[in-house]
């Protein structure tokens, strides 16, 4: 679950992604249906992943973090007036991924969304979530602490900039596995896409970088009026 990145700021913050070789081009904002076609889908994941839902997440009591602190919540939900979202899970206990594509009122508004995300990240050094919420005695309050800001280098990407965050969960015991929650908000012209993930910090959880690459590729294709091509490996990408 490690990116090939370099730390650019201390504590929790966000970093700029240098423009890639291909400039983003969007004549007008995408509507919700178009945004949905730009989301990651089952073909973008290995075959042991499945589409997730709010109902399934409620039954499990765990999923992509929903921080109790209002100032941290936007790091993982990617909310916007015009947006589409989908989620995937590898097993009942994770890892879990959510991707959200959003349209903004021009490039200036999209740039402001990235800047707001950075400010939110800088102000959010830790957050708490309740796992098993609504499941009575199995409810557990856990805390995630900021682990630093990193800068992806997406060569030849259509992305204009990205803000990325990473948090580590406080273990309940010395035997508890390390769990990491991470997210990245990428701007492509006047649109953004958020990829958020939580899972054990081991080989069973995919790296965020390939998902970011694919999310940007699909969003750029839809902006240009093209239908995103399926991944070369029809069984899903190697995450």
Please tag this protein with its features.
disordered C terminus; 10 strands; alpha+beta; single chain; about 240 residues
Characterization of this structure:
The protein is α+β, with helices and mostly antiparallel strands. Helix content is 23%, strand content 28%. It contains five helices and ten strands. The chain has helices spanning 32-37, 54-60, 70-77, 107-123, 208-223; strands at residues 6-9, 50-52, 82-89, 96-103, 126-131, 140-146, 149-151, 161-169, 179-188, 191-200. The strands form two sheets. An eight-stranded antiparallel beta sheet has the order 2-3-4-10-9-8-6-5, with helices on both faces. Strands 1-7 form a two-stranded antiparallel ribbon. The radius of gyration is 17 Å and the shape is globular. The N and C termini lie close together (9 Å). Mean pLDDT is 81; it is low at 1-26 and 234-239.
Task: Please give the structural blueprint.
Layout: E1 6-9, H1 32-37, E2 50-52, H2 54-60, H3 70-77, E3 82-89, E4 96-103, H4 107-123, E5 126-131, E6 140-146, E7 149-151, E8 161-169, E9 179-188, E10 191-200, H5 208-223
Antiparallel strand pairs: 1-7, 2-3, 3-4, 4-10, 5-6, 6-8, 8-9, 9-10
Helix pairs in contact: 3-4
């Amino acid at each position: 679950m490690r990116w090939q990145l370099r730390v650019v700021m201390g504590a929790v913050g966000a970093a700029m992604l240098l423009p890639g070789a291909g400039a983003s081009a969007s004549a007008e904002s995408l509507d919700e249906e178009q945004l949905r076609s730009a989301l990651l889908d089952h073909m973008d994941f290995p075959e042991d992943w499945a589409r997730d839902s709010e109902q399934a997440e409620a039954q499990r009591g765990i999923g992509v973090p929903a921080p109790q602190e209002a100032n941290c919540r936007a790091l993982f939900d990617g909310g916007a007036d015009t947006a589409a979202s989908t989620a995937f899970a590898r097993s009942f206990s994770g890892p879990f991924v959510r991707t959200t594509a959003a349209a903004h009122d021009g490039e200036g508004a999209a740039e402001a969304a990235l800047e707001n995300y950075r400010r939110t990240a800088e102000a959010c050094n830790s957050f708490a979530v309740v796992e098993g919420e609504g499941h009575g005695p199995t409810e557990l309050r856990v805390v995630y602490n900021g682990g630093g800001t990193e800068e992806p280098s997406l060569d030849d990407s259509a992305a204009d900039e990205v803000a990325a965050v990473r948090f580590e969960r406080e273990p309940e015991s010395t035997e508890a596995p390390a769990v990491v929650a991470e997210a990245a908000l990428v701007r492509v012209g006047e649109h953004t896409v958020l990829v958020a993930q939580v899972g054990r910090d081991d080989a069973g959880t995919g790296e965020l970088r390939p998902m970011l690459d694919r999310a940007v590729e699909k969003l750029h294709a839809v902006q240009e009026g093209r239908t995103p091509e399926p991944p070369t490996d029809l069984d899903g990408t190697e995450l």
